[in-house]
Design goal:
The protein is of the alpha/beta class. The chain contains 8 helices and 7 strands; from the N terminus they run βαβαβαβαβαβαααβ. It is about 45% helix and about 15% strand. The chain has a 7-stranded parallel β-sheet, sandwiched between helices. The protein is globular, with a radius of gyration of 17 Å.
Amino acid sequence: MILDCFNLQGKTALITGSSRGLGAGIALALAEAGAHIALHGSMAVPDSTQLTVGEVTAKSGARTIAVTGDVSEDAACVRMVDQVVSEFGHIDILVNNAGTIRRAPAIEHPLEDWSAVLATNLTSVFRLTQLAGKQMLAQGSGKVINIASLLTFQGGVFVPGYAAVKGGVGQLTKAFANEWACKGVNVNAIAPGYMETDNTEALRKDENRSRQILERIPAGRWGTPSDLAGAAVFLASQASNYIHGHVLVVDGGWLAR
């Protein structure tokens, strides 16, 4: 049956940046599809991560654990993947969702902001994919889902670092897919449109900018974490086994406008 292809029963997923927002929504979707879940949050907000663990467990019944650490630090990436494999015995799905954004005109953009965004949004994607991928290649199967952005395709305004790394996420997705597609590991990405998250709070509070954004979105609204649920389950499941190196846009029609 076709619906069986979307079943994630017995699979284990690590979702970075999943204590809230898009990551939490993706974690819940994968859990409801049957996966065991490793939720990730920064060391600064461990209580938030534990709260989300409770919510995901209560709503889905999935076995759920919390892992913490700064993804910009290599030691933390190594520790998180090792913890998931130690706890569950394997890792089948990696969602690289953790990210940050720094806003400033390009000529004033601090080098430290550039470096911070690069480390969190791109270097961590490379490193975690490398680490989890080693496990996946050994078992001959696995799904990596990178969270890209509309700025994978567009330049944005006042976010040169963020635009650069999200373009990089798209290219990195293709690079890994080219090497691993023949080895049973799928590497793809989701590019969310304008979503109601902490990262877009400033935009949503700017009455003029928010109006301009909504006027361009054919769906006529900001997206929510639940809008990514279907795309995440699809790319994590065997239903997407012949899809490699693809960036799936979930944007309410923004790019089509």
